[in-house]
Design goal:
The complex is a heterodimer. Chain A contains ten helices and 18 strands. By secondary structure, chain A is of the alpha+beta class. Chain A has two domains: 3-232, Rossmann fold (3-Layer(aba) Sandwich); 239-344, Beta Barrel (OB fold (Dihydrolipoamide Acetyltransferase, E2P)). Chain A has a six-stranded mixed β-sheet, sandwiched between helices. In chain A, a hairpin with a 2-residue loop joins strand 15 and strand 16. Chain A is elongated, with a radius of gyration of 24 Å. In chain A, 43% of the residues are buried. Chain B is mainly α. Chain B has a domain at 52-108 and 157-213 and 226-274: MetI-like fold (Orthogonal Bundle). Chain B is globular and about 65 Å long. The chains are: A alpha+beta, B mainly alpha. Chain A binds chain B through residues 49-51, 70-74, 76-78, 80, 82, 84-89, 97-98, 100-102, 122, 125-126, 128-129, 133, 135-138, 140-141, 146, 149-150, 152-153, 171, 174, 177-178, 181, and chain B through 169, 171-172, 174-182, 185, 189-190, 193-194, 276-280, 282, 284-288, 290, 292-294, 296-298.
Chain lengths: 355, 298
C-alpha cells in the first residue's frame, strides 16, 4: 500500500518536530528515513503509524485519508527500537497476540493461529524458542520476535523505528540484510528510521535524508551519496574535509572543473578522494602528518595544513609503501570536490558530523 | 576456567553482618512475642484449648473477622486499582490534593475514623438516614465493619500499585494498539498481568491490616456476640475478665489462620512473579550462526 504524506506539521511545545513536510512512499518500496537525533524522523514514523497526530496536514494510505484513523485500524506493523515485547507472554503468545485480539468473527481458529505463528517463527528462524519468555532471549532474537509479531497481523505497511539501534554491530549487519530479503518476499511497503548512514545506504531502495523537521534530499542510496543536494547531506553521509576557498587560493585549481567558485564558497572533499604522496604533486599542497590511525583495512591520516586539520584515507598497502612518520611533510591533492555557496553551508568552524 | 571459590563471594559487602542483624531484629520484634504467646497456650490442655477455640462465639467471630476483611480487601483491590490508575494516568485539577487524601486513613487515629463513620452511618446520621429509607442498615451491623475496614485499608492497594503503573512502558501499549488490540484488550491482556504481582501485594497488605484492625471497628460494629463481634474484641473482653490463657488461645488461632492465608497468597505471588522468568539465569544464546539466515530461506 502506498503512503502519501501531505504538508505535515508537528510541534512539541516550542520545538518544531516536522515543518510542512510532504513525502510519497510508493507501494513495495523499502524507504529509510535518515537523519541526526531530533530531526523529526521518529515523529514522522509515529504519525504514519497513528501513534501521534499531526497538528496539520494529512496522511493517505493507498490514496485514502487516514490522518485520524486509530493505530489499531491502520493495518501497520510497528517494530520498536527496544522491542516492546510483552514480558509476561511466551514468544508464541507474543506473536499470536495480534490474531487473538481480533473480533470473534475474524479470529482464526486455534489450529490456524498455531500454524500461522509457527510459520512466522520459522521465517525468523526462532521456532525452537516458541515456549521461552522474552527475558530469556538475546537482543537480536527479541527483535526478530518483535518483527514476527508485527508481521502476524499481515500489515500493509511495516514501520521500523531504529530497529537495530540497540544491537551490536555484527548482529545488526546480519539482521539488516535479512530484513531486506524479508521485505522483498513480503511485498509490503516498509519505512525504517535510522541515524546510521551505512545502514540506510545498504538496505534501502530510497533514502530520505531529514534535518530539523524537513527533508534535505530524497533519492537512491547512490544518488544521495554521490550527488548530495546540500552541504548537510554531504556531511551527514560520510566523513568530509571542509575547505574555504577564500582562505585557500590554491583550491582554485581544484574547483576549476565545476562552476566558478564565488568568493567564500566552500569545498567538501571526502577523505578517500584526496591523493597523498611524499613526492611533490602537480597542483597539490603541503601538509604535516599529525596522527596515523590504522582502522582495519583503512589507514586514516590526520594532516595539518595552514592551521586546519585534514583527514585522508589510504589503503593499507598504499600507507605501507609511503612510510608516514608523525611530523613528516607530505603532498596532498583532492581528486574531486563538491562546492557549495557559503550561505548554504553550516557556519565555518563547526563540523558537527565528522565521525 | 577458575577453581570454584570456597565460599560465595558477593559483590556487596556485609552479607553476614546484614543477615545477622536482620535475624536478630526479626527475632526480637516478631518471633519472641509470638513464641511467648504460643508458650502461654501451653498451659492449656489440648482439650480445653480446642473448647475455647471452637466455642460458638469464637467461631462466629472468626467468620465476621475473616469474612469482613476478605470482602473489604476485595472491594479495595478493585476500587484501589481504579484510583491508582486515575491518579497515575490522567491529569486533572486538584490531582495532588486527591493524591494526598489517599494517605489520610493511614494518618487518622483509627478510633476517630470509627466514631466518625459510626456517626455518619447511624440511622439518623448524614448518610445513614438516606440508607435507612432504602432499608439498609450500616452502623452496628457486619456491613458497618466492612465499611470501616474498607476505609482503613484503602491506601494499601493504591500506594503499592502507583509506582508499578507509573513504570509501564508506553511502547508496550502502542505495540498492542498497532497489533489491533482495543483499549480494553490492551488493559486486560497486556497491562494487568504486568501489575498483577503488585496488585496481589496490595491486596495482601489490606487483608492483613483488616484482620488486625480493632479501633475503627468496635465503634461501628455494635459488637453483638455471634453477629458483629470481631475476634480482636473477643480477645479483649477475655482479657478484661482476666482470662489471659483463653485470650492467648484465640490469638494463636488467629495467628495460624492469618499465617496460612498469607503464606498461600505469597506463594501465589511468587508464582505470578516468577513464571515468566523460569530458567532465565541460563545465558541467552545468539541463535544465528554467521550466514545461517542466508541458507535457511525456504
Amino acid at each position: 500500500m502506498s503512503i502519501e504524506i501531505r504538508n505535515i506539521c508537528k510541534r512539541f511545545g516550542n520545538f518544531v518536530a516536522l515543518d510542512n513536510l510532504s513525502l510519497d512512499i510508493p507501494t513495495g518500496e523499502l524507504v529509510a528515513l535518515l537523519g541526526p537525533s531530533g530531526c523529526g524522523k521518529t515523529t514522522l514514523l509515529r504519525i504514519i503509524a497513528g501513534m501521534e497526530t499531526p497538528d496539520s496536514g494529512s496522511v493517505l494510505f493507498g490514496g485514502q485519508e487516514a490522518t485520524h484513523v486509530h493505530a489499531r485500524d491502520r493495518q501497520v506493523g510497528f517494530v520498536f527500537q527496544h522491542y516492546a515485547l510483552f514480558r509476561h507472554m511466551s514468544v508464541f503468545e507474543n506473536v499470536a497476540f495480534g490474531l487473538r485480539v481480533r473480533p470473534r468473527k475474524d479470529r482464526p481458529s486455534e489450529a490456524e493461529i498455531r500454524e500461522r505463528v509457527m510459520g512466522l517463527l520459522k521465517l525468523v528462524q526462532l521456532d525452537w524458542l516458541a515456549q521461552r519468555y522474552p527475558s530469556q532471549l538475546s537482543g537480536g532474537q527479541r527483535q526478530r520476535i518483535a518483527l514476527a509479531r508485527a508481521l502476524a497481523v499481515e500489515p500493509k505497511v511495516l514501520l521500523l523505528d531504529e530497529p537495530f539501534g540497540a544491537l551490536d554491530t555484527k548482529v545488526r549487519k546480519e539482521l539488516r540484510r535479512w530484513l531486506r530479503r524479508l521485505h522483498d518476499e513480503m511485498h509490503i511497503s516498509s519505512v525504517f528510521v535510522t541515524h546510521d548512514q551505512e545502514e540506510a545506504l545498504e538496505v534501502a531502495d530510497r533514502v530520505v535524508v531529514m534535518n530539523r523537521g524537513h527533508i534535505e534530499q530524497i533519492g537512491s542510496p547512490d544518488e544521495v551519496y554521490s550527488s548530495p543536494a546540500s552541504p548537510f547531506v554531504y556531511q551527514f553521509l560520510g566523513n568530509v574535509n571542509v575547505f574555504h576557498s577564500r582562505l585557500h587560493g590554491a583550491w582554485a585549481e581544484v574547483e576549476r572543473e565545476g562552476e566558478a567558485p564565488a568568493a567564500g564558497s566552500i569545498a567538501f572533499v571526502r577523505p578517500h578522494d584526496i591523493e597523498l604522496d611524499v613526492a611533490p604533486l602537480a597542483g597539490g599542497m603541503t601538509a604535516g602528518v599529525l596522527h596515523v590511525h590504522r582502522i582495519g583495512p583503512l589507514v586514516r591520516v590526520e594532516l595539518e595544513h595552514d592551521g586546519e586539520t585534514i583527514e585522508v584515507e589510504l589503503t593499507r598497502e598504499r600507507a605501507a609503501s609511503l612510510d608516514l612518520p608523525v611530523g613528516k611533510t607530505v603532498w596532498i591533492k583532492p581528486r574531486q570536490a563538491k562546492v557549495f555557496a557559503a550561505e548554504a553551508a553550516p557556519p565555518a568552524g563547526k563540523q558537527p558530523f565528522l565521525f | 576456567m577458575f577453581p570454584a571459590p570456597a565460599k560465595r563471594d558477593g559483590v556487596l559487602p556485609g552479607f553476614r553482618l546484614g543477615l545477622g542483624y536482620t535475624l536478630t531484629y526479626l527475632t526480637l520484634l516478631v518471633l519472641i512475642p509470638l513464641g511467648g504467646m504460643i508458650l502461654m497456650t501451653g498451659k492449656l490442655s489440648w482439650g480445653s484449648f480446642w473448647d475455647i477455640a471452637t466455642a460458638e462465639r469464637a467461631l462466629a467471630s472468626y467468620r465476621v473477622t475473616f469474612g469482613a476483611s476478605l470482602f473489604a480487601a476485595v472491594v479495595n483491590a478493585v476500587f484501589g486499582l481504579i484510583v491508582a490508575w486515575v491518579l497515575v494516568r490522567y491529569p486533572f485539577p486538584g490531582k495532588r490534593f486527591v493524591d494526598a487524601l489517599v494517605d489520610l486513613p493511614f494518618a487518622l487515629p483509627t478510633a476517630v475514623a470509627g466514631i466518625t463513620l459510626a456517626t455518619l452511618y447511624a440511622e439518623n446520621g448524614w448518610v445513614g438516614q438516606f440508607l435507612a429509607k432504602l432499608g439498609i442498615k450500616v452502623a452496628f451491623t457486619p456491613l458497618g465493619i466492612v465499611v470501616a475496614l474498607i476505609f482503613v485499608t484503602l491506601p494499601f492497594v493504591v500506594r503499592t500499585l502507583q509506582p508499578v503503573i507509573e513504570d509501564i512502558e508506553a511502547e508496550v501499549e502502542e505495540a498492542a494498539a498497532s497489533l489491533g488490540a482495543t483499549r480494553w484488550q490492551t488493559f486486560a491482556r497486556v497491562l494487568l498481568p504486568g501489575i498483577f504481582p503488585a496488585w496481589l501485594t496490595g491486596f495482601t497488605l489490606a487483608f492483613s491490616r483488616a484482620i488486625g484492625e480493632f479501633g475503627s471497628v468496635i465503634f461501628i460494629a455494635g459488637n453483638m456476640p455471634l453477629i458483629s463481634e470481631i475476634t480482636p474484641l473477643l480477645i479483649i473482653s477475655k482479657l478484661e475478665q482476666y482470662d489471659l490463657v483463653g485470650a492467648t488461645a484465640l490469638a494463636v488461632v488467629m495467628l495460624v489462620i492469618s499465617f496460612v492465608m498469607l503464606l498461600v497468597i505469597n506463594l501465589l505471588q511468587w508464582w505470578a512473579a516468577n513464571r515468566h522468568a523460569k530458567g532465565s539465569d541460563a545465558e541467552p544464546a545468539e541463535a544465528l550462526a554467521p550466514g545461517a539466515l542466508v541458507e535457511a530461506r525456504p
